[in-house]
Amino acid sequence: MARADADDRRFETPKGTRRTAFRGGMDKDTFGRFSEAFARGMGTSGFLIGMTVFVVVWLLWNTLMPAVLQFDPRELNFTLLTLILSLQASYAAPLILLAQNRQDDRDRVQIEQDRQRAERNLADTEYLAREVVALRLAMRELASKDFIRAELRQIIDELDKRDGEREAAESADAAGSVEHGR
Prior knowledge:
coiled coil, DUF1003 domain-containing protein, transmembrane helix, transmembrane
């Protein structure tokens, strides 16, 4: 029960799930990380060079040394070396497949996150495109500089005309009152 409570407090473990342990106290995630490290190590040039050196030394020792010092003689077709390499291959293949499965799971999650991000980006882009169109339409309805200048020129002309008519009327009134006053 204490193990389940400890798992519920861990952030990377979904709430309410239990981690199942393999023999020896190693859980699935730890074993998965081990398999990935193993697969990553087997894919390096250092591993291939080291394995080549190991096999060459093995073959030379069991070929060139006196029969008393050979532990896997050539006459028996290097049976022990064959068994060791077969054992390594029998463990390497499932560990590599497990590492690939874990990578596939991570890739699926990443692809889903990328798809969701692309959908959000598309929605944002469409929204911004609609806003740009709305702004362009609104800009067409706004008065341009030339239109405002023409309107102001027309108003100034009307005001000048009114001022001229008012001055003419005032001059006529002033001339009429001068004639009446005589």
